[in-house]
Amino acid sequence: MVFLPSVLAFATTAISLASAHPHLAPGDPELLKRQEFQQKARRSLGDCQAELSKRGGVYERGIARRAALAAQAREARALRRDAPYLKRDLGDVLNTDHHSNLTGVTNSTDAATLFSGNSSCVLGPETTQGPYYVNGEYVRWDIREDQAGVDLYTDIQLIDVNTCEPAAGIYVDFWHANATGVYSGVVAGGNGNSADESNLDKTWLRGLQATDDEGVAQWLSIFPGHYTSRATHVHILAHQNGTFFDNGTFVSDEVSHVGQIFYDQALITEVELTEPYVSNTQKLTTNEDDGILSQEAEEGIDPVVEYVYLGEDVSDGLMTWVALGIDTTVFYEVRAAATLTEDGGVANPNSGGGGGGPPPSGSGSASGAPPSASPSA
Q: In angstroms, what CA-CA distances link 288 with 66, 70, 229, 261, 305?
């Protein structure tokens, strides 16, 4: 919880929300800013790939890092470290029935074959941050708390589009809904039990990590659940020049990237057959029908993560990775739905409640004990 006077709780993020399926009028400043970034991103894509390759070591270290994280995850789950990985390769962002084209994987398959690639989302899009962003969350690696689901290990690398260098020292906010489509930290109609005021103080499935010298941040979470009108996704914000508090929380009013990452539809379908996801009664929106994902695909960007199974099936956990581009010279306005303070969560009455799609309408529980005050990053 952030030690902020209540009068400043809302001032740290004076932000405007875009709509979930943005339909901004031609000439709208936010639309122009987004279009400018997309054009710059597309121009820079080839240059950055070539530059990173010339420098050498960036991709190679990425392969080794992902392989090491997967091995550590297997060890933590008492899975065989020498078992072959099962990988799916993304062929088409909106292909809802694609299969792996990688065959003959064995326990001797080189890590470069399994963990190479940064997807085509090397230079990522700017999208809405959604209606349930909470400012001042904990800096920590494990954000699961008491939430049940398929364990999800995520490796995100940020690349500065201006320099083609890894973006180090960036605090990345990472949050998503639980297995039944409910967000912690926000009390709102449709977000689980709207009469449960205690959810305002919950922090599960939210957390920040600072990128290292390679521009990398990692988390242990669960695979996100779905809610009505949106495909399964995770929200990401990239912060600069914020304040890290002694109790392990972080606050910043500078946002250099607002984005969302998505998952292969075949993977979503498999996860949704397991508990507690199968108990989610909300309508499932596929990738093909998601407005934000469709918009990004039309702009030539693939925001779907690459992944491998840690064991023989999805219940043994997943390792995912993606690279995203940010422009560290620009800053975006975002509005927090709430702020986590020393006295607990404080709702922002001016948050607007828009962006990211209609609020989830599931009946999933909104429970979870607050984490320790010490950072676990």
A: 29, 29, 12, 14, 16
Burial grade of 240 (CB within 10 A; 0-12, 13-18, 19 or more): middle
Burial group, residue 296, by CB count within 10 angstroms (0-12, 13-18, 19+): buried
Q: Is the peptide bond before 276 cis (omega within 30 degrees of 0)?
A: yes
Q: What single DSSP character describes residue 1?
A: -
Is the per-residue pLDDT at 352 higher than 60?
A: no
Q: How far apart are CA 58 and CA 50, in angstroms?
A: 12
Residue from 327, 287, 362, 236 nearest 94 by CA? 287
CATH superfamily of 29-347: Aromatic compound dioxygenase (2.60.130.10)
Both tokens assigned to 99: 């299969």
Asked if residues 187 and 194 have their Cβ atoms less than 8 Å apart, the reply is yes
| Cα 228 to Cα 127: distance, rounded to the nearest angstrom | 19
What is the predicted pLDDT for the residue at 353? 45
Which is higher by pLDDT, 376 or 218?
218
Which of these, 19, 367, 18, 76, lies nearest to 205 by C-alpha position? 367
Amino acid at 344: G
User: What's the pLDDT at 19?
Assistant: 30
Residue-range domain boundaries for the chain:
29-347
Q: Residue 255: what are its φ and ψ, rounded to 5°? A: -120, 120
Environment class of 91 (CB within 10 Å of its CB; exposed 0-12, middle 13-18, buried 19+): exposed
Question: 226 falls in which pLDDT band (50, 70, 90)?
Answer: very high
Q: Quick count: other Cβ atoms within 10 Å of Cβ 6?
A: 11
Q: Is residue 174 scored above 90 in pLDDT? A: yes
Angle at CA of residue 240, ends 237 and 242, nearest 5°: 105
Q: What is the pLDDT of residue 82?
A: 60
Q: Residue 223 carries which DSSP code?
A: P
| Cα angle for residues 214, 78, 64 (degrees, 5° grid) | 20
